Amino acid sequence: MPTYKLTYFPVKALAEPIRFILSYMGKEFEDFRFERENWPSIKPSMPFGKVPVLEIDGKKLHQSTAITRYLGREAGIAGSNNWEALQIDMAVDTVHDFRQALASYWYENDEKLKEKKKEEVLKETAPFYLKKLDELVKENGGYLANGTLSWGDLYFIGISDYLVGMLGYDFFEKYANLKALKDKVLAIPAIKAWIAKRPHTDL
């Protein structure tokens, strides 16, 4: 039986999709969260000096999307063929593009430039991506791809608190299909159980 250890900051953010899918798979895992002041001492031992890192039997894996995709394949929710896998990848890459756009303003140090970027995100970027994603879910029978639950859905909903936090409002209230998808994912017993026991954090 493999052992799992997830290393990340004490937030949901990029690690939560991994926590979601490990929970979905019924895997016990060590959820190691470290404070930011400890990062300089931990960073040198992490691949490419970044987290989250998932260790499986001591082997360190990095890149949150790649890890989630791998676990999705292990769980049997990565599409039944290459075409279906592609549909999931396209949806997840779109979510990633949206996250990058939000992060561009969220982590901007120049306050004047940050306000300008935020205005653009709120007026143009967020409505564009959220409308497209909402339509995508509608077209796919309530899921991001292929009309059935995939690791892409767990990735998106897992990272959604981070997206909402950066955006500054709960976009699920404005997009019914995305809200329905969120409700379905959070109703999965294993996900529900994880949420009930996880530490509370805003992002």
UniProtKB/TrEMBL annotation:
Catalytic activity reported: RX + glutathione = an S-substituted glutathione + a halide anion + H(+)
Domain GST C-terminal: residue ranges: 81-203
Keyword terms: Transferase
Taxonomic path: Eukaryota, Metazoa, Ecdysozoa, Arthropoda, Hexapoda
Keyword Transferase in annotation: yes
GO BP of this protein: glutathione metabolic process
Entry protein name: glutathione transferase
Alphabetized GO MF terms: glutathione peroxidase activity; glutathione transferase activity
Superkingdom in the source lineage: Eukaryota
Native organism: Rhynocoris fuscipes
Domain GST N-terminal: 2-79
Annotated family: Belongs to the GST superfamily. Sigma family.
Enzyme Commission (EC) number: 2.5.1.18
